[in-house]
Each structure stands twice: as structure tokens, then as C-alpha cells.
Amino acid sequence: MVRQPAINARNRAPLSTERIIEAALQIVDGQGLGRLTMRRLGDALEVEAMAIYHHLPRGKEQLLDGLVAHVAAAPVSADVPAGRAGDALRGWARDYRARLLEHAGVLPLVVTRRNPAALTATIASLREALRLGGAAEEAAAVTAHTLLGYVIGHAALEVRGTAEDGADRAVNWDARFDAGLDVVLGGVR
């Protein structure tokens, strides 16, 4: 029988909120949201589950909020050249969709959790990019919310694998996403 060496606590990174969120994200990505428990998370981090509460005093509720913040907070780059807001928004939308699809297990939380702080910076940066592109304040506010809702909603449909138009053919999700993005951004005045 070969004995495994004991894991030396000195070789581990110190426990931090960021490390906890990353480990939780790995569990959700690999096993699904339903398999995320504080005990399983503690095992993944090689700590007692109670040690997690030192960093997340509200426990699993705070952990779930942290997952949403980690996945859903995606501001548009502050370096948007004048007249290039549309390109920046398209790039952001494609990157955000990819992030949501990469962490599809967290997507139900993004849709249902009451965590406006996770999306506040994203909305503000979308509005700013739209204003830099020449959109009026009210149009920028409406478009920012519409764009964010479109990307999240499209990712949710894509994860479900639904062909919501009833088509009996495979859906080209990339083409469908880009076509919808044209509709959303084409209406900005």
C-alpha cells in the first residue's frame, strides 16, 4: 500500500474570499450548482467548512452573491475611442456571452439573485460607452439595460439549447447572437 504524503498547510495559498469564490466556481463548473455545499467547498480548499465562514460570515448566501459578482460583473473598457462605442459594445457583448456560457452553472443565479451590486458597474460602463458614442442620456440608459438583458437572456436560451423559433434544424447560436446584437445596437439614437 502506497501512502500519500500529508498535505502541508504551508504549501497552500492562504484562505481568502477570492480563493473561496474560485474554488466554488470550479465546483459549479465541474459538478453543477446543486453539488455546491460548504462541506464540499471546504474539502476542495483543504480546510474545515467552518473556516470559510471567517471570510463569508453570511455563509452560502454570501457565497452565491460572490459567484454572481465574479461572473456577472464585466464593465466595458474605459478606453473607448470616440466614435468606436459600437465596436466596444459588440466586443463586450461577445466576451460577456462567452463568460456566461463558460460558467453556465452560475447563469441561473445571475438571472434570479437579487444582487444589483454585481451589475451596477456593468450598467454604468455600458451607459458611459453609449454616451461616448453620442447616445443621449435616456437612450444610453435604456440601451444599457436592453443590451445587458439581451446578452443574459440569449445565454440562458443557448444553455437550455432551445430552438425558441420551433425550427427543426440546428441553431447557429453565434449568427443568431450577432443578428440580435445588430437589432439592439441598431436602434441607438
From TrEMBL:
Residues 20-65 form the HTH tetR-type domain. Pfam families: TetR_N. The keyword Transcription applies. It comes from the Bacteria. The keyword Transcription applies. Keywords: DNA-binding, Transcription, Transcription regulation. InterPro entries: Homeodomain-like_sf, HTH-type_TetR-like_transc_reg, HTH_TetR, Tet_transcr_reg_TetR-rel_C_sf. Coiled coil: none annotated. This is TetR/AcrR family transcriptional regulator. It comes from Actinomadura sediminis.
